[in-house]
Write a structure and sequence with these properties.
The chain is built from 11 helices and 11 strands. The protein is of the alpha+beta class.
Length: 270
Amino acid sequence: MTAHRAGLGNRLLAALPPADLGLLTPYFKKVSFEPDAVLVRSGDELDPVYFPHSGAIAFMLDMPDGQSVATTLMGREGALASFSVLGPSLSSVTAIARIAGTASLISAAKFRAAYAQSAAIRNVVQIHARAVLLQLQHVAACNALHRVDGRLARWLLQLHDRVPNDLLPVTHEALAQLVGVRRTTVTLTMSKLREVGAVPSDRRGFIEIDRARLERVACDCYGLMQFNIDRTYCQELAAPQPHPPFRQRAVVASNRASGGSRVSLAEKEK
């Protein structure tokens, strides 16, 4: 990680009144992280706390057989290791950068001190905790009930929510870890996504997506999950934000309003 200068891009920090934010800013260190950077390992102490300004961080649960699967994805709407406010504790997951980005770091001790002094900081941490719990619940249900194509489309959309354009700098290996399948399964599924136009191109670690078509392939979990998370942030964060935490999902909304149905790859293959 390298030091950098960055604006106040984190949604939680941007919601804090100036006086409360001032409890944190003197102790911030600005850093950049590259793809595949391990920010926290399972079993490590939750220290420091990261407030991402850009990029995407996956929380990976390591299984006894050596495999790992993603449980949540975090970007500028969240804070990695914010639960350290509960006291010194060890991480139950490994946090890996999937999309390069930037963040502000603060030691867990300094963050706990500010948390104790500020009702506003306590409020944003609680809102963030509810949003993480919502995502965990949806991902768990999705992994149990839905096909690989719908789940892969959901993860691609979640990554797309956290990048500035339609070209995702992500490899098949990284996607396999997100979905919890073999790399060959991702390659086969990506081929099918190309056939329906959801992924116009996929080469050299960059995946171009057609968001409208990808939304039609994704399982219903994506739209429902992001609607609930967006509502949590928009209704409960104190300060209005110039940019929503996630992209507008006009296609999903219009499909629901018109009674349209999304298209699975299984249906396309019949």
